[in-house]
Amino acid sequence: MAQFGKYRLHSPIGPAPVNFVDLKRYALPNGIYRAEVTLTDLNNPTDSRTYSSEVRVEYPEQELSQSDIQLLASFRRAQPEERSPLIKNGFFFECLPFNFYGRSADKLIFYNEIYNADQAIGDDYLVTYKVERASTAGKQETVLIGHKRRSPKPIDILLLQLDISKLPSGNYNLLVEVRNRENALLSRRAVFFQRSNPYLHRNREAIAQGADLSGEFVERLSEQELRYSLKALYPVLDHQDGELLNTLIKEKDPKAMRLYLFSFWATQNPNDPEKAYQTYMQVARKVDEQFRNGFGYGFETDRGYIFMKYGAPDDVVTVEDDPVAPPYEIWVYNQFPYTNQRNVKFLFYNPSLATNGFILLHSNARGEVNNPRWEIELYG
Q: How far, in Å, CA of 107 to CA of 104, rounded?
């Protein structure tokens, strides 16, 4: 027996079972081992499970080699006084369970160590990391790739992230390769993982038809919150979708409203629809508060509509004391990528003098209200 340990492990206390992780590290000489772990419930000793697997340790002392690739759910710098088996080389590593990336995952984080590059290579070298689609036919299809030039060290640590927000559902291999200046392959490690990205590249209709809203953020919204959230979408919808939204709000079908709201934000951010929704609604609530008048929400006013559609202007000129004109505002956008224009302006005026009663009178933005008689109407 090379190593042995026996200890009590206290699971988190809570009303329901939760997943948790424990880690033990053992230094072993090169060889082939069988690791065996037995778990016993001390409250019920008859409830016991044993797991075993073969472990091969092959790390030559002077030849180039790599550790296995460790997939991580997250990482952070450890605090100086912090003690945990999950801390290594100054970082706290949260392991990724089951090598599986669900819908909400947008980054692949991995850790890998390269040994003896100073002796085996002695010069700068290249690390290539790539994601290949796993294929039973033997055909390799690289879908993501990156490179890092490294300096030779006894132990070189790789802690890198890949953007997988656009990676479709499927089975993949992550490979980390070490190559010399001549691009000759010197060492390679690979790890298999699975990706679920069900809403990627799907339109709203397809998402709505197949969406299971159990546990999704829209299930927690009241009918009033649903209507509010849907009305906040008008500025970013085309005419056809606006008409559909009118119908949904008029018919007051909570399920239909939830499906539409979820499918809209799932197309905006397939990995985290709720995050996209919350980010947008945070702005919508501020706009509502700033521009609300007595006749609707602030984002339904002309100024609120333009703000939600195009974002905050670069400059606002407010005139309230012109003796021959009602109060008016000029919003200036220095760059206007929506129509590829510069120095775009929106003129709002308040002929009724009501609180927040500003109306869009004129703009030089293509596709918006363009009123050649704006001066006559403003000063008339």
A: 9
Residue 138 has pLDDT above 80, yes or no: no
Strands 328-336 and 91-95: unpaired
* Joined tokens for residue 245: 């939204």
Phi, psi of 176 (to 5 degrees): -120, 120
Q: How many residues does the chain have?
A: 380
Which residue type sits at 10? H
In one-letter notation, the amino acid at residue 225 is E
- Cα Dmax for the chain: 97
| Fold adopted by 62-195 | Immunoglobulin-like (2.60.40)
How high is the pLDDT of residue 140? 80
Tens-digit pLDDT profile for residues 204-223? 777 667 677 888 999 999 99
Residue with tokens 């390679």: 188
pLDDT category at 239 given cuts 50, 70, 90 is confident
Q: Domain segments of the chain: what residues?
A: 62-195, 200-280
What digits encode the pLDDT tens for the residues 314-336? 999 999 999 999 999 999 999 99
Neighbour-count burial for 301-328, b at 16+ CB within 10 Å, e otherwise: bbbbbbbbebeebeeeeeeeeeeebbbb
Name the burial class of residue 263, with classes exposed (0-12), middle (13-18) and buried (19+) by CB atoms within 10 angstroms of its CB: buried
> Rounded to a whole number, what is the distance in angstroms from the first to the last CA of the chain?
97
Q: Which residue has the tokens 């424990």?
A: 22
Rounded Cα distance between 288 and 354, Å, is 16
Better-predicted residue by pLDDT, 171 or 17 = 171
Q: Provide the CA 145 distance to its chain's centre, in angstroms.
A: 19
Q: Measure the CA–CA gap between 45 and 43, rounded to whole angstroms.
A: 6
Among the listed residues 261, 280, 273, the one whose alpha carbon sits nearest the alpha carbon of residue 165: 273
Q: Per the structure block, which two tokens stand in for 235?
A: 């500025």
Q: Which residues of 144-177 are buried (b: 16+ CB within 10 A; e: fewer)?
A: beeeeebebeeebebeeebebeebeeeebbbbbb
Report which secondary-structure segment, H or E, holds 258. Answer: helix 254-268
Average pLDDT over residues 282-309: 96
- In this predicted structure, what is the pLDDT of residue 234? 95
- How many angstroms separate the CA atoms of 210 and 198, rounded? 10
